[in-house]
User: Fold Imelysin-like domain-containing protein from marine metagenome.
Amino acid sequence: MTNKIKLIILFTCSIIFVLYTIFSERLGNENRREISFDNFISSQPEEIKNNYFTIDEICDCYTIAYDLLDSAIDIRNNYSTFEAFSKNSESVNTVNDFKTKFQNL
Assistant:
């Protein structure tokens, strides 16, 4: 056999193999087994598993963060458009300062 025929046979077999694997996954869903978590045992003790926190109980900085955001929003809401806000460099710098403080918090 010539090299062209060998190459064509190899390429055809490769395509058939790829198509077979693709369609066997799509058509073979009835052979898959269901995963059940009924007998799953958690590694956490019960008192830790049911211990939920709200955001203001985790960090003392919660009210400070909201104050920074509210201050920045109040400054921005004083202007009717974003272009008017952008023209006032003092307000832009103040909002950027609040943003930096919030990110550092």
